[in-house]
Amino acid sequence: MSNRSVSAAYWQGFRHGLPFLLVIVPFGLLFGVAGAEAGLNLAEIMGFSVLVIAGASQFTAVQLMADNAPVLVVLATSLAVNLRMAMYSASLTPHLGAAPGWQKALVAYFMVDQSYALAIQDYERQPDRSLAEKLAYYAGACSPVCPQWYVSTWAGATLGQAIPPEFALDFAVPITFLAMLAPMLRSAAHVAAALVSVGLALALAFLPAGVGLLIAAVAAMVTGAQVELWIERRRA
Questions:
Q1: pLDDT (tens digit, 9 = 90+) per residue, 81-125?
Q2: CB of 209 within 8 A of CB of 79?
């Protein structure tokens, strides 16, 4: 392994992460605006984006805080929404688990939906990458995404009132997840898991925030695993 291959992996990840700026910028702007409208000051809004760095749970927390929900409800619901990161971590462990503790801490901090989606697809396409190359790719994928999240949040919090309503920034949330999920639907197990998760999430939308999504996520994982087992048995 050479420094050149590690550098190449980093810049490949960086290039792959660049398109997400098209959705990260409006997503961050939208959170900055939402935080300001909820009565948070700039330090509180930036604290959310720098310390939590998880858009979905940040929006959930701000909405509940605006509704004067109890602190425990805010924390529990935000945690429920963000539990998908535990699933992300589990799937990355076979690839990055041998890294030193401080590197794994950085991986955990910068783990967002976009960096995970890019990394897991790359690792599955190129299983022979070294640990250093995998970490470099991950760092490259994070580089254009995470800093811009901070900058966009600040811009939304400070300039939000000047952003015309017709810009419809909320389009960024569904577009982000569609862009990440579509390339991952490469097998019957992936498609089955996606259909189950969508169906259950819609059917359980009446449950308190986050609960329906968690049930749908668990059911989707079980479905995907069972389909994989069924396919393997047929092949055998």
A1: 787 788 888 889 999 999 999 999 999 999 988 899 899 999 989
A2: no
Q: Using alpha carbons, select from 151, 146, 157, 169 the residue that is nearest to residue 35.
A: 157
Query: Considering the chain, what is the average pLDDT of its residues?
Result: 82
Share in percent of the chain as helix, strand, coil (round to 5): 80, 0, 20
Distances (CA, A) of 87 to 8, 215, 221: 28, 13, 10
* Confidence check: pLDDT of 156 > 70: yes
Rg of the Cα trace of the chain? 19
First to last CA, the chain: 37
Residue 232: name the closest of 195, 187, 186, 179 by CA. Answer: 187
Of residues 51, 12, 56, 3, the one with CA closest to residue 34: 56
pTM of the predicted protein model: 0.73
- Domain range summary for the chain, segments of one domain joined by +: 3-184, 186-236
Which residues, including other chains, have CB under 8 Å from residue 17's CB and lie 6 or more apart?
A: 114, 115, 118, 140, 141, 142, 143, 144, 145
